Prior knowledge:
B: alpha/beta
Amino acid sequence: MPKETIFAQGNEAVVQGALYAGLDFYAGYPITPSTEIAEILAQRLPQAGGRFIQMEDELASLCAVIGASLTGLKAMTATSGPGFSLMQEALGYAVMAEVPCVVVNVQRGGPSTGMPTAVAQGDVMQARWGTHGDHAIIALTASNLADVFLMTVEAFNLAETYRTPVILLLDEVVGHMREKLVIPGPGEVEVVQRLRTSVPEGTDYHPYLAREDGRLPMSDFGGVHRFNVTGLVHDMWGFPSNDPAVAYGLLHHLVDKLENRAETLARYQDFFCDDAEVLLISYGSAARSALHLVEQRRARGMKIGLLELNTLWPFPAQTVRKYCRGRGHVLVVEMNRGQLHGEVQKAAEQPERVYLANRYDGVFISHKDIMQVLHVVLGKGV
Amino acid sequence: MNTRRYIRERFFPHLWCPGCGHGIVMSALVGAVDSLGLSQNEVVVISGIGCSSRMPGYLDFHTMHTLHGRALAFATGVKMGRPDLTVIVPMGDGDAAAIGGNHLIHAARRNLDLTAVVLNNRIYGMTGGQSSPTTPEGDRSTTAPYGVLDPSFDLVELARGAGASFVARSTTYHAQETRELLAAAIAHQGFSLVEVLSQCPTYYGRKNQGGDAVAMMKTFKQITAPAGSQRAAQDPGLITRGILVQEPRTEYCAAYGELVRELSGHEE
Amino acid sequence: MESRSLKEELSVLIDVDWCKGCGICVAFCPKQALSLDEHGKARWTGPEDCVRCGLCQMRCPDLAIELR
Lengths: 382, 268, 68
């Protein structure tokens, strides 16, 4: 039974989802258009016995989140544009040290300070490759408040399951728009708790030795197992190593644990895809306009469908390939210069049929914008 | 005291250069923890990057080697997550005062119960002898071949100005004093900073005709004096040692815990 | 009498594998009870002069000296 129905903003849906998932700790720094997440949590967390702190910058915020996570807390930070750039150093640390945490990026126009109050989806590649070095990452997104809530819970679940930072890649429109949000009751949505080691005190515990199922049970700082955490290449105890075999194995583990599970981690929804000759692929707020167009054109008999991706990274290439197969035309709809378009082209068997409908001027892409491109693609003129 | 109880012997001999002062500070830190009777499971040691940052790896506590300059930010999360744990943050001078300067002043201002230990050797050792914000004006480094043009930070005054509730200073020559100051800093409820002048004979000493480790430690004896001593009063050019700031102030976690109690009380 | 019993109880133990031969213990020993050997390692060469003050242990950067 739903606990409560509220009229809320996307950023508040993040807060609701995080609290549902068991958020204990938030550290952040104000930045448009994500600030409401910090503001609401500053009020809510101490009421719930959780911990909130405003740090001196975004980088410090993610560092504090990682520290708190190592004491066993579910921890999150939220930011936008320039703040996400600052966080990249700590994001890489969380990847390397395999510390579960959630980073929300409510995207705005860039590069640099860009357009702080305008919508954009220009951080898709930064989410994937923003921190240096080979690695893998999970990035989730959503186009409506129900999904924002669910993807926030999912972000925590995947962070705990795979001991990884998870990026919740929202955008200004989703963050600031208001609609109905039905908050699920306790138990209605699965919440994954941290897997802790069963190794008893006095027995050698390996914080970086994966079990047969690939999971790495944790031990909290302050517990009975003392180990080391470092951003250096490290062995199964967490101590630095220069051994090429250790470096090779670690990199394989960090990438494979997510990339090899790309289809397991794929969260997506399809609309009218069965007989669609034209397939739109979209995500985030852009998917709202894409769905609007699909519904409008379907009413006029056009065979058009939408694949909405909720998992952007690891990119669900097999799923996308399957969906693209046999379509006359595939149109990727996004608010950037084609960051996911390239991934779809790589995945599709006929990349020459994958087109891009986009905007990158701070204006929300409309169904008319997409229709204009579709006209050209279908050879019906400009 | 059985030092070996607190260290990870398999990583010894350590990687610090012969005569490097950092091992003396580590030894003093272990002595301080031992004198306070803390159990190893209730101590967390968090470092940044640099020569000093290798310390946690050698210590048998909960340990973390983080990002350059950011150890205090990580430590803030650890301390807020588990306020009952003792959190010690060894840092280098570049780590603390250059790349981590912002984190340092805010940690001091917040008065979270962390103990920052700045091992000040006045140089970047790990990268091969570049000048840091504590390299004295005129001294040489690989990035200041004609001498440093800009004035250096006084870490004690920096911490005091930022609102640290406990600030102390000593040197590796004064190892016993360092141990006692570290113990007092750890026992202090609130943010504490202990600056320890530590010799880097390999880079700072060599670049500045400082002599070997022994000569550099003798210099520490000559250029410092206990705060409030006659020597210090007679020669204002001397660097003062001892507890230089000690002011009881509300600790951040305590204040936050109080807020949580108040709010949940309202709800009931 | 007390220092004599201390002398009997405590030895200055030096781990030569850890000692890097910096000479700090030798230079600052108030009783010249330590010296560097032909391999440049610290040795407790004057146990009869040693007052077991522990300064060598406290100042050893290699954690190689222990009074036990």
